[in-house]
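Troubleshooting: if your tokenizer reports a length mismatch, compare your output against this known-good record of 111 residues.
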Amino acid sequence: MEYTIIALFSLSILLFIVSFVKKDRNKEVETQIENFSITLMQEIYQLKKKIKILEEEILIGQDDRYFTNSQDRMLTYDRDKILALYEDGHSLEEIEEITGLSIEKIQEILG
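Known-good structure output:
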């Protein structure tokens, strides 16, 4: 009986020492997951920056297209709308103010 207790006690001490020496696999997995999440966060941040830049370029392109080119303005006020304004009794000057088109373009559309 004494030998059994001594053997179990020594085995427990040996296992206790081995548990400190043995690598903790959970810590490795936690470290890998942490590194992976940091990498993902960096990539997401970079993608958001690129998307923001692209959105700004698209908006700038649209601003230039809609506000500098009279031909594109004519697309926003098509022939039917200009005809409807004219038939409602608006003068060419009023239609010019509403649409932003020149009187020549309006006359050309009314043709």
